Amino acid sequence: MTLPLELPQMRGRLQRHGLTLPLLLCLAVVAIVTICAIFGSNIAPDSPFTQRLEVGDKPPSAEFLAGTDLLGRDVLSRVIHGARTALVGPIVVAAGAFAIATLLGLLSGYLGGLVDVAIMRWVDFMLALPGPLVAIVVVGVIGGGYWTAVLVLIILFTAPDTRIVRSAVLEQRPLPYIDAARALGISKRRILFVHILPNILPLILAYVVLDFAFALVNLAGLSFLGLGVQPGTPDWGRMLFENRNILFSNPPGLLLPAGMIILTAVSMNLIGDWLFERLTK
Amino acid sequence: MSAEISSLTGAEPLLTVRNLSISAAGRAITIGTDLHVGRGETVAIVGESGSGKSLTAKAIVRLLPTGVSATGSVSYDGVDLATLPERAMRAMRGRRISMLLQDPFTMMNPLMKCGAHIEEMLRFNPAYRRRAALKAEVVRRLVEVGITDPDVAERMPFQLSGGMCQRVAIAAALARDPELLIADEPSTALDVTTQAEIIKLLKRVQRARSMSLILITHDLRLAFSTCDRIHVLYAGSLLEVGGAQAVQRDPFHPYTLGLLLSEPPADRRVPKLIAIRGQVPRADLVAERCAFAERCDWARDKCRSAKPALAEAAPGRWTACIRRPEIAAEMQALRAAVIAGSATTVLPLSPTPPMIRVQQAVKTFAGRRGRPVRALKGVSIEVRPGESVGLVGESGSGKTTLGRILVGLETPSDGRVEIAGIEASRFAAMTPADRASVRRTIQMVFQDPYSTLNPRHSVRRSLTEAIRTTGPNALAGAEARVAELLKEVGLPASYAERRPDSLSGGERQRVAIARALSVGPKILVCDEPVSALDVSVQAQILNLFKRLQEELSLSYLFITHDLAVVRQIADRIYVLYLGEIVEEGTTEEIMSRPKHPYTRRLIDSIPH
């Protein structure tokens, strides 16, 4: 009974935080994907590995809500299980890239001089490389699949992220509060991590979320090319590859994982934009 | 009221603003402002930041930012501007009413040549359809604003100095020969000597064209020296209106009196400035009472129960103070007492060794295209214990560079710097013990109160960070020390929990001073510490500096462009011009008998 009374209040509170309906939907998508990644085996109606060749390539039915693939595996269960690789890899990439980039960016922006030159020339070099191609070649030659891909992406993503952190540091550096800290004789390390870092952290957080979205798409792409996860692993990119021939016999087999990749990436992008708006003002 | 003013000034009415109220998002910014400008009249709107003076001007020409709306009537030469269609209004702007803004650099299009700004305004006139005629007119217009070099028209805005840009902007604003020019702080962003020139130019042009001028400014002295009539705006309410000389002689409103007394006088030194306590309130919070009641010593209950209307108190004089008849005598007595009590005290120079000794300091920066720029060309100064020394100069004089060298933020290219007997020209090359000792001796207070504090740190955190540097066991007593420091700078202890964004400019500057004091320094280098503050707050901070000097026997090096400020605080003055000391001496000597032409120019530029 209290609901109609509370609703306008709640709407007011949501709007104050800039939480519009599309954004709430994005948050819901990310929440669902996260739940699937953690509790996948409890939620999924079936095992993602059980093959039933006799019911292979069937459209949606009461038994298999999203139909089956060529080997008769339940598509819905595979998509739910696939949330794990879709989430873990990108999180590691985004966090790893920004951990390194924050350190390099702080040093480069604050110390300047030779340190800055060295780091920035390395960044220029990395940016000159065709990223996806490097990933394909490295993973293809070295092997190791998913985790090699994650490592390569961390290194590739670190370069542009370093630039972002560095420019944020350069913005803070000439401000009088930094001068005041220097005049007081506060150590460089303390100025970097206690005085500057908290001021650029909002920006970093917003970019971490954006990195996540890019990493998700990149990893799915590598999996599609067979350079990511092991064959058989439930993974959205891998499913696109495996199910590309059953688009017409069982459309959800292809469209569901594809839709999940797009939805998750777009959601994270929009959440990143929102975070950026909120945290940097 | 407007009708009465027109009958009194005798001037033909050009602009009449009645009951103009501006609000944004339901919050009042100004409340019922009246304004009247006769033909050929110069009127000032004086107010501190947040008084609504700029928005009042923008409301007149209907250029309010989105989300800000205005009610009330604006009648210009018989035309109601409030209801005029946008098309007709556009024809009005520039052609009949023109506007001049504060910052000459952002006001001009950086991609357009200076001449093009004026051409743009002249293009409507068929007389200048021919290119040669247009060019010739641009040159003629530039001459009117004192630019005799025709090449200026071909230059880009960034190639010109601030003063030159402002002259071009004035020429552009005048290009369509408006009857009314609204100048919003036209000189504030410029150097002192340039400021005086620009104001003189505006005044000259106004007289030559018998144009009306509305000057919007925070500087009461400037308004008195330039304008016929003064409107004092405070927190969105008009508090006093009257002839410039009459108001200057005998202000009717306690706020105007407070402003007059809190402005540091340039011609003498007072032991303590009469500061207005507190800070400017938000207009919407004082909609139903006297806007100044909170800070007024004469306020009674009746001042707070209803908003006093602007009422005529004497012929040609209006005040919003309802207690004016009762307190007039007291106000006059206070003013007389302040003027009489202006004894100059010059401390005798102590023969002790100097705290700061700079010898032949040179600083060279890498300029554009690697060409070296010499910011300091062999500067020598001394500051003795307990002494306050003013370092006066305009932007580009190198005064800030010298201050930064003293606290180790810059390293001089050449020369010697000694702080309390320790050689400190190269902080990096000093022993850690010496460096720590110098840092505990000399600290700096910066100009911009809005970025001087770490926005992510609470006041407590900012102060604790500073206390931490004093020694390994310093954090043990930090809590008590924070409270003590806040008390020293006149802030309540509860402020320790506050973040910088919930503090006013004056409060931030107090915290910044507390931070500098936390290491127990003997010398403070103050780089324009009050120039970014409102006039009424400036006096509070200057008084704080004076009190701290007595209590803690500090030495000050006061870096400023403002001679009035330096007169109040400094015993001796160094005048710095293009990286060289051109004159030095006691404050009295320099202010009353300046020898160097540059010093004379600086002193002449103070509005009288």
Task: Indicate the topology.
The complex is a heterodimer of chains A (281) and B (608).
Chain A: H1 3-16, H2 21-43, H3 75-111, H4 113-128, H5 131-142, H6 145-172, H7 176-183, H8 188-224, H9 236-242, H10 252-279
Chain B: H1 2-9, E1 13-24, E2 27-38, E3 42-46, H2 53-60, E4 68-76, E5 79-80, H3 86-92, E6 97-100, H4 104-107, H5 114-122, H6 131-144, H7 162-174, E7 180-184, H8 192-209, E8 212-217, H9 220-226, E9 229-234, E10 237-243, H10 244-249, H11 254-262, H12 301-305, E11 311-314, E12 317-319, H13 324-340, E13 356-366, E14 372-383, E15 388-392, H14 399-406, E16 414-419, E17 422-423, H15 432-441, E18 442-445, H16 459-468, H17 478-488, H18 505-517, E19 523-527, H19 535-552, E20 555-560, H20 563-569, E21 572-577, E22 580-586, H21 587-592, H22 597-604
Parallel strand pairs in B: 3-8, 3-9, 6-7, 7-8, 15-20, 15-21, 18-19, 19-20
Antiparallel strand pairs in B: 1-2, 1-4, 4-5, 9-10, 10-12, 11-12, 13-14, 13-16, 16-17, 21-22
Q: How is this structure best described in words?
A:
The complex is a heterodimer of chains A (281) and B (608). Chain A is mainly alpha-helical and 281 residues long. Chain A has a domain at 87-281: MetI-like fold. Helices cover 75% and strands 0% of the residues of chain A. With 608 residues, chain B is of the alpha/beta class. In chain B, a hairpin with a 2-residue loop joins strand 11 and strand 12 (317-319). Chain B is globular. Residues 1-8 of chain B have low confidence and may be disordered.
Summarize the structure.
The complex is a heterodimer of chains A (281) and B (608). Chain A has 10 helices and no strands.
